[in-house]
Design goal:
This protein has 15 helices and 13 strands. The strands form 3 sheets. Strands 3-2-1-4-5-6 form a 6-stranded parallel β-sheet, with helices on both faces. It has a 5-stranded parallel β-sheet with strand order 11-10-9-12-13, sandwiched between helices. A two-stranded parallel sheet has the order 7-8. α1 crosses α3, α4 runs parallel beside α5 and α11 packs across α12. It has 3 domains: 215 residues, Rossmann fold (3-Layer(aba) Sandwich); 84 residues, Rossmann fold, CATH 3.40.50.720; 123 residues, Rossmann fold. It is of the alpha/beta class. The structure holds nicotinamide-adenine-dinucleotide.
Length: 443
């Protein structure tokens, strides 16, 4: 049965901590009937009295208002109310567990109580939409949460319940403001569109909504926070460098942040080829040398080169997994980036060298090098003009894209497998579910 979309919705929020309370009060303020549930009775008594106990601008006032309006009721258990609900938002804690994995214990306890209530849900009721807002480990929704609900509710998903993930991106201290105007909303679904955009709870929002699979939703939440941590560590490394150089860290930060074109932008943030060229590698090394000369350790920046080298090795291994030596391979692109003929420090050239050393026969086409001086290529590799592309493609077993010149791609036989390193699309035809052995944008 399809999920029922209506206004207002009857919603329960399970777990009234930082995330749950913001979720519950905001949904109540939007006009829904909300039942707030927490297992801690004392905490519920505080909330019932309109006391929050922590500083969160606007939240205490909102809590009092929605309670006075009768839109938010508080309870210590879910079960009696389950039959009439449209949606349950689960916001319980997922603390750090052993070996860095998030502990899903509290979440499983909450799902168990939900599942036992689901068993009694009338057969003719639409599925109850269970939305996990807690941050969960990658893979947990599919492998742990869904099976626990299926087993506990004795129902397949889509029958008595539907399970979705809707990670929260709020920050404490600006929680309400962040929740009200998020940069984006992510909805992880079991099947595309099945949650009917979480029954319309975000209809009034201006933020873009992304409906994705469970794994993407789980990963983006962790990736965002990993990036924020990376930014802090990077800023502190250049702050320490500034001090070692007798510079003011805040002033250096101002200069750095003034570049919105390359520093604070989407530039360099798409997975693809390793970095290279005549400047990035040598300038990074120069910065690290300057730091070392002052006895300063910058472990984050020190690790960048190793990460870049590892990425090249990874690409070679992926090629080997697809087509073993000697190939033949056709490499499209040799200069260090699109639109230039400079091969100094070129990652495609490094890739070519590694492939030839591995025993591959590699033919290379780069339209931007047709008028460039003769290159010293690794032995056995040959650089050709665009005129020979069709013939070389017909002989190759794999086309490796280090550039994507649209006009040339049209000249490639449609059945030739393509490994697109510019966009890091490294799937095999089988993984991509393509009938033909082509696994780039064509499938
Ligand atoms: N705090 C943040 O800034 C923030 C931001 C985004 C995401 N998150 C994530 O959201 C989740 C919740 O975080 P939080 O900071 O709100 O946690 P919290 O510890 O403040 O609140 C969790 C609440 O859930 C209650 N609870 C636990 N098990 C329950 C059960 N079975 N039934 C009823 N209530 C139960 C607890 O009593 C507690 O009040 C975590 O996964 C966290 O990583 C937190």
């Amino acid at each position: 049965m399809r999920l029922a979309r209506k206004t207002p919705l009857a919603i329960a929020v399970l777990g009234l901590g930082r995330v749950g309370l913001v979720t519950a009060t905001s949904l109540a303020a939007a006009g829904h009937h909300v039942l707030g549930i927490d297992r801690r009775g004392k905490w519920l008594a505080e909330l019932a009295a309109g006391r929050l106990g922590w500083r969160e601008p606007g939240l205490e006032e909102l809590l009092r208002r929605v309670q006075a309006q009768g839109r938010l009721r508080l309870q210590d258990a879910l079960e009696p109310a389950l039959a009439d609900l449209d949606l349950v938002a689960i916001c319980v804690e997922t603390p750090a567990g052993p070996e860095g994995r998030l502990d899903c214990g509290p979440l499983l306890v909450a799902l168990a109580s939900l599942a036992s209530g689901l068993r009694a849900r009338p057969a003719d009721a639409p599925p109850l939409l269970c939305v996990v807002r807690s941050t969960v480990p990658i893979g947990a929704t599919e492998e742990l949460l869904l099976p626990s609900l299926v087993q506990g509710a004795r129902s397949a998903p889509g029958e008595k319940f539907e399970l979705a993930l809707n990670p929260e991106f709020l920050r404490e201290g600006t929680a309400l403001a962040d929740h009200r105007s998020p940069s984006r909303i992510v909805i992880g679904e079991r099947l595309p569109g099945v949650t009917r955009r979480l029954l319309g709870i975000y209809d009034a929002t201006q933020a873009p909504i992304f409906e994705v699979g469970y794994r993407e939703a789980e990963t983006i939440k962790l990736l965002d926070n990993a990036f924020h941590a990376l930014k802090v560590a990077f800023a502190n490394e250049f702050g320490r460098l500034a001090l070692a150089l007798d510079l003011a860290p805040a002033r250096l930060a101002e200069l750095f942040l003034a570049d919105g074109k390359l520093n604070l932008s989407a530039a360099y943030l798409r997975p693809g080829m390793p970095y290279g060229g005549p400047c990035l590698p040598k300038d990074l090394r120069a910065l690290l040398t300057a730091a070392r000369a002052r006895g300063l350790a910058l472990p984050l920046l020190e690790a960048v080169e190793a990460s870049n080298r590892l990425h090249l090795t990874f690409l070679v291994e992926r090629i080997r997994a697809l087509v073993p030596p000697p190939g033949p391979l056709l490499l499209l692109g040799l200069s260090f980036k699109e639109g230039v003929e400079d091969v100094r420090g070129s990652p495609p050239l490094a890739l070519l060298t590694a492939l030839v050393a591995d025993g591959y026969k590699v033919e290379v086409v780069d339209p931007e090098l047709e008028r460039a001086p003769v290159l010293a290529l690794p032995r056995g590799a040959r650089l050709h003009g665009r005129a020979t592309l069709a013939r070389l493609a017909a002989e190759a077993r794999l086309l490796v894209l280090a550039k994507r010149p649209a006009d040339l791609l049209g000249m490639v036989p449609p059945e030739l497998p393509i490994l697109d390193l510019v966009r890091l699309e490294l799937r095999t035809p089988a993984e991509a579910g393509c009938a033909a052995a082509s696994f780039d944008a064509r499938c």
